[in-house]
Amino acid sequence: MAARTHQQMVFINLAVKDIELSKKFFGEVGYELNPQFSDDETACVAVSDSIVLMLLQEEKFARFTVKPVADATRSTEALICLSAGSRRQVDELVDRALSAGGSPAAEPSEMGFMYGRSFLDPDGHHFEVMWMDENAVQGC
């Protein structure tokens, strides 16, 4: 009998200045908050079955690292790229983020077989949202 494959998950931990503002923002973008792993310093945001944002108030985030906490409004700490099922889904997600208080991070990217847009959350974390024609791209 073949061994079962473990579905690996990705937990992206981000420092935020105002946990309540972050909860409101990501809720308005359309993601669900998992109350079991959320409290007054933490928000557990389910992006998909395998991707979770762990938003930690800066003071709590600092307890997990010996390095200074980055200020995402002043420097880029990471580019978080999320896939979408279509061009329309790219636009819908980014439009919701902008309506919820996010800001554009860059101009839309049009490459024929790939389309993307981006936004910054209220803390300046950079999110890319991308659609790729699976028929045009092999091996990614």
TrEMBL record:
Organism, as annotated: Streptomyces cavernicola
Protein name (Swiss-Prot/TrEMBL): VOC family protein
The organism's place on the tree of life at top rank: Bacteria
InterPro entries, per the entry: Glyas_Bleomycin-R_OHBP_Dase (IPR029068), Glyoxy/Ble-like_N (IPR053863), VOC_core (IPR037523)
UniProt domain VOC: residue ranges: 8-132
